[in-house]
Amino acid sequence: MYDYLETAETTENLRRVAVDPISRVEGHGKITLLLDQDNQVRQARLHIVEFRGFERFIQGRPYWELPVIVQRLCGICPVSHHLAAGKAIDQLVGIEPGNLPSAANKLRRLLHFGQVLQSHALHFFHLSSPDLLFGFESDINKRNIIAVLNDYPDIGLQGVKLRKYGQEVIRMICGKRIHGTGAIAGGMNKALTQPERDYLLSDVDQIIAWAAGAVELVKKIHGSNLPYYDEFATIRSNYLGLTGADGALELYHGGLRAKNDQGETIVDHVDYCRYNDYIHEEVRSWSYMKFPYLLSLGKEAGWYRVGPLARINNCDYIATPMAEVERLEFKVHGGEAMVHSTLAFHWARLIEALHCAESIKELLNDPEVMGHDLVAQGEKRYEGVGVIEAPRGTLFHHYQVDENDIVTKANLIVSTTSNNMAMNESVRQVAAEYLSGRELTEPLLNNLEVAIRAYDPCLSCATHAVGKMPLQLELVDVEGRLIDRLIKHGDGAIEHDLGG
To answer: Considering the entire predicted model, what is its pTM?
Structure first.
């Protein structure tokens, strides 16, 4: 079922459909489908067709530069890379994970909650809500945040303000909303002042209320479209993420927990510094993105999902009260140990946003968050691993340095990489349902993309202007003759060009 290897036997007499590039996601990628003579989908692949090479070009740099360098991977979640690198270089100066001074630890947590809140708000309201509010096959001109603001002004404005608040948390700590500085080896470089704390506190109750309202909105959308939302692009999978020692949802620091599709534990709260004992990566010739898998289950059965759905599925409870109430309702909805609906990523995402808003308030009311004991020191080491729950899922940064503190080796497993196989399988399922036996249409194109967007992928960890990416969908036969072509231009105009 999950075999994507092409052979002469599997490709003979099959037609190829290419979606290149995918729109309304961060980065560049394409989809290819192989159809048999009955237009049934036989193979599906999500290709990542750009190469950035961060693992290579950070080699030769001094380790203390890494938190600033690696956050350039992304304009949406730079703080996640910044903190993952910070946690890794903590170990290079002899500080064990979780052993930072209390003020530095709480300041990093506050920073991370602001990051997750703003990223979740951006993804749901700006990128996904047009599909959810107007329908997957609605007029293409309606599928953007401007249309949401016009037709649902309260919803759109609250989404914009939720994101802005998360960015303000980042700005107060790092000096800038994007690509600021904060984490250094062994701690943080600046204390939070009382005026900065009071500024953030002044709006936090409203932010919590809006986050709770967003959860109610996504529940209403999901519930009004059953069973469709429980079936669209849905697959059964393993799930991986961090949890606290007591099984609590943990976004900043914890142990690795993996469960299978029945909710049975595969590994539980293992030290993430030993991730190589549990996770390996496979390279395939047709994509620049690797394919991680759980070593104990092997390449075929060991692939897994990460991100909000995995975290809410894996944890035993959420420490903040409003989010915990929502988690319990979410789990009941699934009807079994694990919720497998791919579109439920959106629901889980907003539960986490509510948790972040509640957590920000708790930390702002903690006097230690304004403490000035911010840096610890220890004995020099030559290897460090930093793992954090980025908005899109578990993020691994692994560095080795030499005696001159120069990076000699780096390995990054970005969240979207872990969801690689799952996105491929969700695309295959949607393509089989909506492409088979039908004429190519723009709504068909969007259905394929909706499946990918549910995972909130960052295909290159870079930003693009919403709605400005061109898209071309072509159907060709095995001899390469064009049968059908659909083109979306950068201005949104659609051109249907029949080949012959």
So the answer is: 0.87
